[in-house]
Amino acid sequence: MSLLSGVMAIGRWLNDICMWRNPVTTCLVHILFVILVCYPELILPTTFLYLFFIGIWNYRFRPRQPPHMDAKLSHADRAHPDELDEEFDTFPTSRPPDLVRIRYDRLRSVAGRIQTVAGDLATQGERLQAILSWRDPRATAIFLNFSLIWAIILYVTPFQVVAILLGIYMLRHPRFRSRMPSVPFNFFKRLPAKSDMLL
After folding, report:
1. How far apart are CA 147 and CA 140, in angstroms?
2. How confident is the model at residue 162 (pLDDT cuts 50, 70, 90)?
3. Nearest CA to 32 among 168, 134, 124?
4. What is the structure's pLDDT at 144?
5. Could you check whether the bond before residue 92 is cis, i.e. omega within 30 degrees of 0?
6. Is residue 192 within 8 Å of residue 127, measured between CB atoms?
7. 3-state SS string over 120-178?
8. Cα 95 to Cα 134: distance, rounded to the nearest angstrom
9. DSSP assignment letter at 61
10. Does 80 score more than 80 pLDDT?
């Protein structure tokens, strides 16, 4: 969670910009976006300058002592006595069968949750594959027509115009947003997956 906290913070910041929580910041992001689209050669220097400023900002919070073992990082301070007993148990186990069965049930429930998450990820991948596989002929035909139209539009329209229009659409004011799911998201969620064929 600590590793992904920066990504989640950027996501929350982008969501705040799209929802116009701070209009001044949102207007500045609009201006920066248009500048970067019109002058794409500034994207990499701006990114590295931003990384430089983040490093300078974090200098104040640098560690003062050398790194050491952190009991909170491994949640050792919140370990259940049964978990500690399981760690220090001999092999083969010296505990009664009922206790071992409880431990395996707990492990099976964790594995079941992991399997559910892996299945959800596989379902999304199967939906991506279904776009061009003609498993749903109407969905594939709609996607192919959409791709052809966008290919023609992108060939005749300068990239900067498309990028600016797309960015301004993404940053539009909440007054112009709908609470309903977007059409592409709805289309994607309705694509067939192999989970539909399970008994």
Report:
1. 10
2. confident
3. 168
4. 92
5. yes
6. yes
7. HHHHHHHHHHHCCCCCCHHHHHHHHHHHHHHHHHHHHCCHHHHHHHHHHHHCCCHHHCC
8. 56
9. G
10. no
Burial status of residue 17 (CB atoms within 10 A of its CB: 0-12, 13-18, 19 or more): buried
Dihedral in degrees, nearest 10, Cα atoms 32, 34, 36, 38: -150
Q: Which two tokens stand for residue 52?
A: 């430089």
**Overall pTM > 0.85:** no
Counting every residue written for the chain, the total comes to: 199
Q: Cα–Cα distance between 108 and 95 in angstroms, integer?
A: 19
The conformational region for residue 167 under phi > 0 = left, psi -120 to 50 = alpha, else beta, is alpha
Cβ contacts of residue 153 below 8 Å, gap of 6+?
A: 162
